[in-house]
Specification:
It is a single chain. By secondary structure, the protein is of the alpha+beta class. The chain has 16 helices and 16 strands. Strands 1-5-6-11-10-9-7-8 form an 8-stranded mixed beta sheet. The protein has a 5-stranded mixed beta sheet with strand order 13-12-14-15-16, with helices on both faces. It is elongated, with a radius of gyration of 28 Å. The two termini are about 45 Å apart. The protein binds adenosine monophosphate (AMP). The site of adenosine monophosphate has 17 residues, from strand 6, strand 10, strand 11 and helix 12.
Length: about 425
């Protein structure tokens, strides 16, 4: 066996797995397009500075998870660790805001983070997601949440939970953070080291801490942001919940759900499923009214979500190991017949749209028939010397075992007329 292995945290997708991936990709493309979203694909690497500014220099992604390097020309580059910043970079670079006041964009792409690998957590993984750039209104947030939810519903994902919150507009943040720090003054020393470090740098992210003791202390003492948002922001949140109610999308209000970056505002949401185990997040999203300006554009409202594809495939679960269907296996009995067999296979693919597999190992008749059974072919064609001399071919229905001889020139018509 070769000593070469995939790099830790990366994986190969073999043909049986790719089957379910292709189905998933196909459904996502059609649902996105059905909702008026257009696909965008950005390069695999960008200037590192885009992510430092776009995600924030206090985040785990930027401080320790980015694959970045200086290239031969002295440029500081990074493999993309998230997709919103590149989409916004493209939106600005191509001045998309000038052509239309609202852009609905979606992506399906690979990204890279040097995280600790575990089930549902890789170093190269895939995300699909959507960004609506231009509308400040709550119906746009509701559209985003329902889009994500309906994608999962379409895959029949069980035990889903939509959690929803509002962190209000950016203007309230400085005063709220002061009040938050004040409210936890007496329990500061009891919080974990990570939380203690976050109090000054990024206090909102205290609520992201996975330590149950920290969460208990915050429950008892911390001032929640939802209690500080303005009447206008409450009204924005209310409209979202009204639309979700009307659409029959179940959700719960989680008043500790935050996104700890400066440019996030208003809505935050997450969809989880208990069938995923520890890494239960299917997707996360929210409004990021400050990002476009932060990356050098005019202030522009935007909302989006990002969803892990590997997590979705895990959640789909048992259908995971699908076998690529074969319609016809073409068995042939002698070397002289190979060109004719190859031509028949080609004609059937071209004219009947069938998946046709041709024997190329020159095995015995018995071994070829066994292979036809193994790959699940519904029909086997047998080109024997005798049949060839008569200008005929045997067609065998693998379910019933019935077989008959037909004239070679009628094979396409015959296959097309067979259900
Ligand atoms: P984020 O970009 O961190 O908000 O993540 C959005 C979604 O991507 C999560 O809800 C997960 O479904 C998925 N995800 C995040 N990190 C990973 C990872 N390392 N491996 C696989 N999926 C991930």
């Amino acid at each position: 066996m070769s000593n070469f292995r995939t790099i830790k945290g990366t994986h190969d997708l073999l043909p049986n797995e790719r089957m379910i991936w292709r189905k998933v990709e196909h459904s996502i493309h059609s649902i996105m397009q059905q909702n008026g979203y257009g696909e965008i694909r950005t390069p695999a690497f960008e200037n590192t500075e885009l992510f430092v500014r776009g995600i924030g220099d206090e985040t785990d992604i930027v401080t320790k998870e980015m694959y970045s390097w200086i290239d031969q020309g002295g440029n500081n580059l990074a493999l993309k660790p998230e997709l919103t910043a590149p989409v916004v970079r493209a939106y600005l670079q191509h001045q998309m805001g000038n052509t239309n006041p609202l852009h609905r964009l979606y992506y399906f792409d690979a990204l890279f983070r040097r995280e600790r690998p575990q089930k549902g957590r890789q170093r190269q993984f895939y995300q699909f997601g959507a960004e609506a750039i231009g509308s400040p209104n709550p119906e746009q947030d509701a559209e985003m949440i329902s889009l994500a939810y309906n994608i999962y519903k379409g895959f029949n994902i069980q035990n889903m939970m939509v959690r929803l919150n509002s962190i209000g507009s950016a203007e309230i943040m400085p005063a709220y953070l002061d009040n938050l720090r004040h409210s936890i003054k007496s329990i500061e020393h009891e919080l974990c080291k990570i939380c203690q470090a976050r109090i000054e740098k990024n206090a909102l992210r205290l609520f992201d801490c996975k330590n149950p003791r920290c969460q208990e202390l915050l429950d008892e003492h911390a001032l929640l942001i939802f209690e500080s948002i303005s009447d206008e922001d409450h009204a924005h949140f209310k409209v979202i919940t009204q639309i979700l109610d009307e659409m029959g999308i179940p959700y719960s209000h989680d008043n500790k759900l935050v996104r700890g970056l400066d440019y996030y505002s208003h809505t935050t949401f997450e969809i989880t499923s208990t069938i995923l185990g520890a890494q239960d997040a299917l997707c996360g999203g929210g409004r990021y009214n400050g990002l476009i300006e932060q990356l050098g554009g005019k202030p522009t409202p935007a909302v989006g979500f990002a969803a892990g594809v590997e997590r979705l495939i895990l959640a789909i679960g048992k259908q995971n190991n699908m076998v690529q269907p074969v319609d016809i296996y073409l068995v042939h009995m002698s070397q002289e017949l190979i060109p004719t067999a190859a031509r028949i296979a080609n004609d059937l693919r071209k004219n009947c749209g069938k998946t046709v597999v041709l024997e190329t190992l020159r095995r015995s008749m018995k071994a070829q028939m066994r292979e036809a059974g193994r790959c699940g072919a519904t029909t086997t064609l047998i080109l024997g010397i005798e049949e060839f001399a008569e200008n005929k071919i045997i067609i065998k229905d693998m379910a019933t075992g019935n077989q008959e001889k037909i004239v070679l020139s009628e094979i396409i018509q015959f296959v097309n007329n067979t259900p």
